[in-house]
């Protein structure tokens, strides 16, 4: 496969050389940010923010150690996906089609579609919650948002709005400051970060699965492998991409832990979140009486961005699997399956998001669905990364294979326990 070479940046001129050192470092960091950093931070979307805030509100600092374990798993999984993309030049969807039978590949695609549909619902629920904070009823806001996202994508203008949504979502980077200004019990937080303080209840297990589902999102795994391959990152460039992937995973989960800490300090009544306004209260140390507006803008940006990207990723995967046209630059008659599937997902996501109920809890429940599906797709990733026929000498070694297997097995076991508990609850067994 022919790979495009990248040219080194030119030396700065005199005015640029006089710029403050921190600004030069920031520009450099943004310039080298790769698929690993982007993919890992994609987990801090509407569902992620709601789930982390719910963890802090309901269980205080108890989930911090759990997030430490999830961080290890995220680093392992993201690194395997990036390595698969770099050493094969093919995304996960293509590798699964090449390496598995038609039925097994179809099952993986079905799991991805189901997980992504849950994410689409969560993004429109996030849009509804955000616009309610900004004074607009969800029953008006969600249909309008769905129509807007659909039009932006179908008429090819989404790439311009994308920049605005990205800027709005930067509001969530105030959480580390909010966590410090809220004066949490650092001793208790440190103790529960360093040592497990788990609870045996069903609700805690459900939230644990939701944390896995929103942190190790199947969509992210497919994105990072495809993005690495599409950028032409090969074995020679992989050491830099590996550093990017690990750094992105660590940074994303550090933000997640700050969200949990800030919310735990701001909300002392240990009950599930009842509204987005409660989640926004964690930002009061930073924004004061404008906390709800700041949270609402951040939630709006993160949700709108993902509300288009997630259904598009499903449309790309399905269209590529059946070998038909897949491009947002095409019209409906030129790419009916691709744009039709995108339209159906947007319609279903918006329809479910306007049903009566607690939008924050809807966001968390969709992450539970992701958590149940995640170990299935991670098994595909693990098998591919273990195969020398796929990666050659870059395949998982004994130590990495052992750690990766333990991570996937632990996630699968927790998901299985929650699934069994749920099924028993349906038949009246508690």
Automatic annotation (TrEMBL):
It is found in: Membrane. Keywords: Membrane, Transmembrane, Transmembrane helix, Transport. InterPro entries: NRAMP_fam (IPR001046). The chain crosses the membrane at residues 64-86, 106-127, 139-158, 164-183, 204-226, 246-273, 294-317, 337-355, 362-383, 403-429. One of its GO terms (molecular function) is manganese ion transmembrane transporter activity. It comes from the Bacteria. It is a multi-pass membrane protein. GO terms for cellular component: plasma membrane. GO terms for biological process: iron ion transmembrane transport. This is Divalent metal cation transporter. It comes from Streptomyces mexicanus.
């Amino acid at each position: 496969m022919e790979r495009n070479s990248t040219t080194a940046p030119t030396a700065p001129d005199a005015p640029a050389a006089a710029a403050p050192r921190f600004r030069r470092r920031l520009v450099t960091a943004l310039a080298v940010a790769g698929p690993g950093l982007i993919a890992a931070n994609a987990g801090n979307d509407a569902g992620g923010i709601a789930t982390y805030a719910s963890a802090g509100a309901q269980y205080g600092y108890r989930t911090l150690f759990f997030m430490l374990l999830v961080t290890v798993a995220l680093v392992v999984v993201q690194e395997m996906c990036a390595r698969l993309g770099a050493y094969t030049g093919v995304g996960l969807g293509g590798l699964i089609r090449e390496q598995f039978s038609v039925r097994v590949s179809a099952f993986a695609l079905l799991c991805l579609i189901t997980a992504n549909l849950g994410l689409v619902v969560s993004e429109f629920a996030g849009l509804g919650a955000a616009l309610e904070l900004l004074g607009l009823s969800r029953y008006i806001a969600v249909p309008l948002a769905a129509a807007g996202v659909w039009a932006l994508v179908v008429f090819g203008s989404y790439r311009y709005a994308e920049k605005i949504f990205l800027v709005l979502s930067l509001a969530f980077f105030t959480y580390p400051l909010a966590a410090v200004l809220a004066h949490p019990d650092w001793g208790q937080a440190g103790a529960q970060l360093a040592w497990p303080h788990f609870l045996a209840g069903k609700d805690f297990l459900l939230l644990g699965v939701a944390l896995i589902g929103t942190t190790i999102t199947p969509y992210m795994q497919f994105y990072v492998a495809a993005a690495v391959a599409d950028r032409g990152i090969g074995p020679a460039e992989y050491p830099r991409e590996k550093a990017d992937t690990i750094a992105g995973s660590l940074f994303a989960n550090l933000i997640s832990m700050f969200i949990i800490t800030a919310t735990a300090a701001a909300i002392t009544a240990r009950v599930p979140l009842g509204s987005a306004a409660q989640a926004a209260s964690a930002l009061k140390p930073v924004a004061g009486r404008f906390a709800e507006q700041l949270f609402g803008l951040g939630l709006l940006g993160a949700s709108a961005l993902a509300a288009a990207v997630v259904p598009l990723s499903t449309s790309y995967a399905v269209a590529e699997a059946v070998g038909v046209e897949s491009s947002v630059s095409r019209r409906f008659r030129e790419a009916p399956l691709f744009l039709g599937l995108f339209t159906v997902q947007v319609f279903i996501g918006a329809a479910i998001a306007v049903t009566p109920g607690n939008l924050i809890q809807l966001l968390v429940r969709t992450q539970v669905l992701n958590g149940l599906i995640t170990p299935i797709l991670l098994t595909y990733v693990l098998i591919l990364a273990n195969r020398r026929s796929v990666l050659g000498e870059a395949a998982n070694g004994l130590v990495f294979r052992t750690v990766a297997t333990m991570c996937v097995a632990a996630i699968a076991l927790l998901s299985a326990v929650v699934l069994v508990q749920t099924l028993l609850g349906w038949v009246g067994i508690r």
